[in-house]
Every structure is written in C-alpha cells, then in structure tokens.
C-alpha cells in the first residue's frame, strides 16, 4: 500500500468571513477526499465543520467545491489528482456559509415547496395507475436525483447573482416541473394548473440559457439540460404559439 503526504488548502470561517488554511495530510491508496477531511479532523482540526452522512454518494450531504468545481467529497477519489498538486476545498459558493465547509442550503427547500405536487387523476384508485414503460423510464432518470444541489450551485444564473434567486428555481426544480409536466397521469391541467405557464412565469425557465453546466456536475449523470430543461422549453414555446391557447388568452383578456 502506498502512502504520501499531500498539500490541502481548506476554507475555515463562518458567515462573518474566513480564509484558506494550509494543511499537509497523509493520503493512502483508494481514499476519497472525505477520508482526508476526516483525517484532518482527527489529527489537526477537530473543530472543522463538514456535512456528510452515507459516504456512498447517495445522501447528497457532502457537497463542496474541490479546486473550484462542485463535487461530492465522498465520491472524489484522491487518485484524480497528481500527488504533487495542492487541493483546495471550499464550501458551495452559491449558498451562505454556516461554518467551514457547511452551507445553508434552505434556498433549495423553499424552491421545492414552490413546485405544486403531483395531482392524482380523478376516478383512478391508487394502485390502479398504469403507464407506458417509456414514460416510466423517462421520469426514472429524474428520480435518481439525490438532492446534492451541485447543479443549483454551479448554475451561473444564481452562482454570482443573488438577486436572481427570487425568480429562478434552478435546474433541480425546473427538472421537477418538467418531470411532472411529462407525467402522463398528472391531472394538474384538469385542476386548472398550467405547469408550462408556471415554469415560465413562476420558476424562471427563461433565465436558463442551456449552458449545461448543471448536467456536467450531476453525480447521478442525469441529463438535466437535454432531457428535462430543453423539452420543457419546447413544450412551453409550443403552448405559447398554439393558436387555440392564443385565442383563449385573447378571449379571457376581454
Ligand atoms: Fe444533484 Fe443531479 Fe439532483 Fe442536481 S439533479 S441535485 S446535481 S443529483
Ligand atoms: Fe443553468 Fe443548467 Fe440552464 S446550468 S443555465 S440551468 S442548462
Ligand atoms: Fe452521502 Fe457524500 S456522504 S453523498
């Protein structure tokens, strides 16, 4: 088993401010960055705050930025980096810092609450829902989301623009709107809820200019842009230029 000492720069601080501190930590074969953070806690910085839970890439808790890229600490192998490289670990930039590597991600829970839930079809008892396999597979991809919020952190619409957070739900929640809008059993329209209109007017779909950075950082490999956001944009545009929808809105305006 090979062992070496690696150089790390870790952000220490709180909501008032902080700085990068230098550490040298032992690295062993097969380790991930979270192992190093734990060794750092055990040997040199017992009060270093980090959020984690499963250490298996499934709980979405250990999100942070490694050399400026949003990543899961538990799924980033140390073998990704050259042993001579200094590895910088910082908290998620788009969310307020609580302490050290822990950020306040409650923005995402507020956005989650703004998306109306699945509306069950009337007259179909639970257990009797039937869907085509192709529709099951389409939404299954979106259901793999572990809510790590790396996509929310990386999207340039909010990353450096705090002011956009009010109007923009972010890729994770626009994907949720897309999933529900594609759901063949969702009866939102019958209940008077137009998910395509709310995607534009309430969740800020128009802010997304399909840069695909969200897709690039998703640890579940969900094709957020190609399979959720672009189809949702197409459906919203279809609705806007549908002559019947246009006529209906003109009549309603009178
Ligand atoms: Fe994380 Fe991917 Fe879900 Fe975004 S879509 S929260 S990157 S798992
Ligand atoms: Fe942002 Fe993803 Fe769109 S990064 S701009 S939500 S494609
Ligand atoms: Fe659960 Fe990293 S600790 S995803």
Characterize the structure shown:
The protein has 254 residues and is of the alpha+beta class. A 5-stranded mixed beta sheet has the order 2-1-5-3-4. Bound molecules: iron/sulfur cluster, FE3-S4 cluster and FE2/S2 (inorganic) cluster. The site of FE2/S2 (inorganic) cluster (FES) has 12 residues, from loops. The site of FE3-S4 cluster has 12 residues, from helix 8 and helix 9.
User: What's the N-to-C terminus distance?
Assistant: 77 Å
What's the arrangement of strands in the largest beta sheet? 2-1-5-3-4
Average pLDDT, to the nearest integer?
Answer: 94
Bound molecules: iron/sulfur cluster, FE3-S4 cluster, FE2/S2 (inorganic) cluster
Q: Tell me, briefly, the overall form.
A: elongated
Question: What is the chain-wise order of helices and strands?
Answer: EEHEEEEEHHHHHHHHH
Question: Can you count the helices?
Answer: 10
Question: Which percent range describes the beta-strand content?
Answer: 15-25%
What is the helical fraction, as a range of percent? 25-40%
Radius of gyration: 22 Å
The number of E-state strands comes to: 7
Q: Give unreliable regions as ranges.
A: none
Could you say which structural class the secondary elements and strand pairing correspond to? Answer: alpha+beta
Sheet bearing the most strands, described?
5 strands, mixed
């Amino acid at each position: 088993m090979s062992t070496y000492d690696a150089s790390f720069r870790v952000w220490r601080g709180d909501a008032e401010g902080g700085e990068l501190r230098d550490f040298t930590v032992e690295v062993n074969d097969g380790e991930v960055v979270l192992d190093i953070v734990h060794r750092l806690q055990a040997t040199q910085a017992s009060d270093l705050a980090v959020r984690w839970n499963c250490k298996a890439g499934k709980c979405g808790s250990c999100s942070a930025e490694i050399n400026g890229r949003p990543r899961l600490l538990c799924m980033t192998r140390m073998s990704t980096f050259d042993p001579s490289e200094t590895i910088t670990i910082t908290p998620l930039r788009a969310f307020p810092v609580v302490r050290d590597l822990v950020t306040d991600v409650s923005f995402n829970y507020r956005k989650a609450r703004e998306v109306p839930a699945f509306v069950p079809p009337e007259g179909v008892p639970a257990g009797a829902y039937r869907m085509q396999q192709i529709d099951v597979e389409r939404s299954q991809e979106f259901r793999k989301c572990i809510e790590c919020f790396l996509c929310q952190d990386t999207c340039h619409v909010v990353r450096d623009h705090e002011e956009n957070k009010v109007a923009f739900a972010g890729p994770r929640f626009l994907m949720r709107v897309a999933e529900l809008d594609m759901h063949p059993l969702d009866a939102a329209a019958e209940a008077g809820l137009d998910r395509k209109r709310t995607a534009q007017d309430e969740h800020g779909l128009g802010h997304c200019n399909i840069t695909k950075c969200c897709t690039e950082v998703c640890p579940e490999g969900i094709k957020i842009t190609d399979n959720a956001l672009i189809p949702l944009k197409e459906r919203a545009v279809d609705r806007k230029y549908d002559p019947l929808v246009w006529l209906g809105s003109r009549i309603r305006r009178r």
